[in-house]
Amino acid sequence: MSALTFTLKEQQPAQRVDMSPLVCQKLQGLDVDAISAIILQTGKSRLRVDDLFYITGKNTQEIIVAGSINKLDFIGKELDGGSISVQGDAGAYLGMQMKSGSITVSGDTGIYAACEMKNGLIQIDGDAGDFLGGALPGNKQGMKGGTVLVKGNVGQRAGDHMRRGQILIEGSAGDYCGSRMLAGTIAVMGSTGRYLGYAMRRGTLLLWNQPQLSATFNDCGSHTLAFLPILFASFKSFDSRFADSGAAFNRVQRYGGDMAETGRGEVLVRI
């Protein structure tokens, strides 16, 4: 059975589109006619799915969004099994509160990708916006599990209020990376911006390059840590530079902080 494919029509939407109804568990058991009649919110208007997309295929557990643009928000919201492949860019809130399954994006994503994600895998081949894996405004817990892999760069406050899971960034991260972290792991191969780990309580920031750290982080010396080979072995299954990067971390420089909070977080920098 071929994948259920939504191909954006030539007449692109003028306003942002809420794509949250088009997830695997909500479409399960529906035929093409029923899917075509689903209503999507776009700005102040409400449009049928077939007003915006050509629809082909039948497998609702394997969804493809072809010709996607950055006005398509909430792709994969609360996804609970199955897979979604985005061919192009995605808008804001990609994979918001995702429970299981996988999402892949061939282009860039907007703000709040993987926000409050619970489980599953999100792979972004381009760049990600601010608050990757963060918490919604007013909430205190961000990403709670799963894995996010970004092959490009990410914006500010990646992992803000992060609770569990791992964020793997092949590019660089903006300011306040790992801010207010409660637990989890963020790995960054590129550079990091200012205020790294601001107010983090626990968790691990794994870095390839020396960061600018605030005075509230203490230098704990160089270490050979037994858990790092196990961590890098878990990256072997990913289509990523992380799969072959374990040899670079024989020893690390460890910094503890943020001492303005509990001071139980750590920043590990490759030596």
UniProtKB/TrEMBL annotation:
Pfam families named among the record's database cross-references: GXGXG
Domain Glutamate synthase alpha subunit C-terminal, residue spans: 74-210
Annotated Gene3D superfamilies: Glutamate synthase, alpha subunit, C-terminal domain
Signal peptide: none
InterPro entries linked to this entry: Formylmethanofuran_DH_suC (IPR017550), Glu_synth_asu_C (IPR002489), Glu_synth_asu_C_sf (IPR036485)
Name the record gives this protein: Formylmethanofuran dehydrogenase subunit C
